[in-house]
Design a protein that fits this description.
With 421 residues, this protein is of the alpha/beta class. It has three domains: 3-166, no CATH class; 179-188 and 283-330 and 342-419; 195-275, Alpha-Beta Complex (Aldehyde Oxidoreductase, domain 3). It has 15 helices and eight strands.
Length: 421
C-alpha cells in the first residue's frame, strides 16, 4: 500500500476511534449509574441528573463548532509552512511533503479534531433524543470535555511543530538529513547487491537491449527482481543507467545475454521504476544537489544571503567527509546482475559544482568554499580528491573574473597559493 494511502487509513481509523469514545463513555456511565446504589438523601439529586446532562448540550455544540472551524486553520498554516520551505528551493518542499513524520503528525491532529467534533455531535444528538437514562454528571462532562481536551493537546503539539516547520533552517536540516540517509544507504549497498560492471566485466557486443517503455528518470532499481528473472531465463543482465539518470523511450536501460523472449524483456523492464522527477531513495546525488541549489538561491540577487550559503557549504563538507570515512560494502547477492559502480566525482560535482560558479563572485563564500574543497583533496579517496582539486582550479578561474575588487582577488589567490605549497 502506498505510504500516503496508509497514513490516510490510519488517520481515518484514529478519527473513528476518537468519535466513538464519548458515546462509549456515555453508555458506560448509563450502565454504572443504573447499577450504583441510590441512597434516599441523594434521590433529589439523582433525579435531576438528566437535566444536568441536557444542560451541557449547548456547551458541546459550541465546542464541536469550534473544532470544525479549527481544522481549516490547521491546514492553512500547514500550507503556509510549505510555502516557507518552497522559498529555499522547490525540491526542498518536495522533501518536506515526503517526510512521513510531518504527514503523520498532521494526520494525528486532524483525526483528533474531526473525531472529537463528530463525537460531540453524537453526544448532543443522543442527549436531545433522551436515549440515555439518568447518567452521572461526571460521565456527561467527561464525554463532552474529554474530546475537547484531546483536541487542545493535539493543537498545542502541532503549534509547537509549526514553530520549527515555518523556519527556513528546518528545510536545510531536513535536506541534510535526507542526504545523509541516502549516502548511508549508498555506502551499505553501492551496487545494490550486484556485481560491479567494470572493464573486466564488460558488456558483450551481441547483448540485447531492454528498452525503456517511456521517457523519465530512473527512480528505483529492483535488483532482486532482475536477479529472479535472469535466473529463471538463464541469462545475465548488465545495467546501463543508475537511479537518478534520465532515459528516453526506446533507450536501452539494460542489456541481457542470450536471446530471451519478449515477455522476459518486459519483466526486466518492470524492475526499473521511471518517473517525472528524481527522488532520494537510491540516488545519493539528489540530496547533495538540493543543498547546492539552496545555496545558489541564497546567493541570487533577490536574496543575497551569504550566511545561508556558507552554512550549506559546511553541511556539504561534513556529509562528504563523513561519507569517505565509511568503508563500502562489497557483498554480492545477485551474481547475474552487473551494476555500474558509483562515481565519487559525480557526488562532489553535484555538491560543489554549481557553487564554484555562483559563489565565485562573493569573497565571503569563495573562501569557505575553497577550504571545504581543499579539505576533500585529502579525504583518502583518489577519485574524490582529484575531483575536488579540479573544482578548486575551476573556483580559482571563476573568481579571477567574478571578483570585481582587486584586493579580494589577491586575498583569495594568496590563500590558495599558501594551501598548495
Amino acid at each position: 500500500m502506498p505510504p500516503h494511502l496508509l497514513l490516510l487509513c490510519r488517520a481515518l481509523a484514529r478519527a473513528g476511534g476518537v468519535a466513538v469514545a464519548p458515546v462509549a463513555l456515555l453508555y458506560l456511565g448509563s450502565a454504572l449509574a443504573e447499577l450504583a446504589p441510590k441512597p434516599g438523601r441523594m434521590a433529589a439529586l439523582w433525579q435531576a441528573m438528566p437535566e444536568m446532562g441536557v444542560s451541557v448540550v449547548p456547551l458541546a455544540d459550541l465546542l464541536a463548532a469550534a473544532l470544525l472551524v479549527g481544522a481549516p486553520v490547521v491546514l492553512g498554516v500547514t500550507v503556509l509552512a510549505h510555502g516557507v520551505a518552497a522559498r529555499t528551493t522547490p525540491r526542498v518542499q518536495r522533501l518536506l511533503i515526503r517526510d512521513r513524520r510531518v504527514a503523520g503528525m498532521l494526520g494525528r491532529v486532524l483525526s483528533v479534531i474531526f473525531g472529537s467534533a463528530l463525537g460531540l455531535l453524537f453526544v448532543t444528538s443522543a442527549l436531545r433524543a433522551g436515549v440515555f437514562e439518568p447518567v452521572g454528571a461526571i460521565f456527561v462532562l467527561g464525554a463532552v470535555l474529554g474530546p475537547a481536551l484531546a483536541s487542545m493537546v493535539a493543537l498545542a503539539q502541532w503549534a509547537a511543530a509549526l514553530r520549527v516547520l515555518c523556519r527556513a533552517d528546518l528545510a536545510l536540516a531536513l535536506a541534510e538529513m535526507q542526504a545523509r540517509a541516502s549516502l548511508a544507504a549508498h555506502i551499505d549497498a553501492p551496487l545494490f547487491g550486484g556485481v560491479p560492471l567494470s572493464a573486466v566485466a564488460h558488456v558483450p557486443g551481441g547483448a540485447l537491449a531492454v528498452p525503456a517503455p517511456c521517457s523519465g528518470v530512473v527512480q528505483r532499481l529492483d535488483v532482486a527482481a532482475l536477479e529472479a528473472c535472469a535466473a529463471k531465463a538463464g541469462i545475465e543482465v548488465w545495467i546501463e543507467h543508475r537511479p537518478g539518470e534520465t532515459v528516453l523511450a526506446g533507450w536501452p536501460m539494460a542489456r541481457v545475454s542470450g536471446a530471451p523472449e519478449a515477455a522476459i524483456l518486459a519483466q526486466l523492464a518492470q524492475a526499473f521504476t521511471l518517473g517525472p522527477e528524481r527522488i532520494p531513495d537510491q540516488d545519493p546525488r539528489y540530496g547533495l544537489s538540493v543543498l547546492a541549489e539552496t545555496a545558489s538561491r541564497a546567493l541570487s540577487p533577490m536574496v543575497q544571503d551569504s550566511g545561508t550559503a556558507v552554512d550549506v557549504i559546511q553541511s556539504l563538507q561534513r556529509l562528504l567527509w563523513d561519507h569517505t570515512r565509511q568503508p563500502r560494502a562489497r557483498q554480492v547477492r545477485f551474481a547475474r546482475v552487473h551494476v555500474p559502480p558509483p562515481s565519487d566525482a559525480a557526488l562532489i560535482e553535484a555538491a560543489f559544482g554549481p557553487l564554484t560558479r555562483d559563489g565565485a563572485g562573493h569573497i565571503e563564500v569563495a573562501l569557505p568554499l575553497f577550504a571545504a574543497l581543499d579539505s576533500l583533496t585529502r579525504c583518502g579517496r583518489e577519485e574524490m580528491a582529484r575531483a575536488a582539486q579540479t573544482l578548486c582550479d575551476r573556483l580559482l578561474e571563476s573568481s579571477e573574473t567574478a571578483l570585481a575588487i582587486r584586493a579580494q582577488r589577491e586575498e583569495l589567490f594568496a590563500i590558495i597559493g599558501a594551501a598548495r605549497r
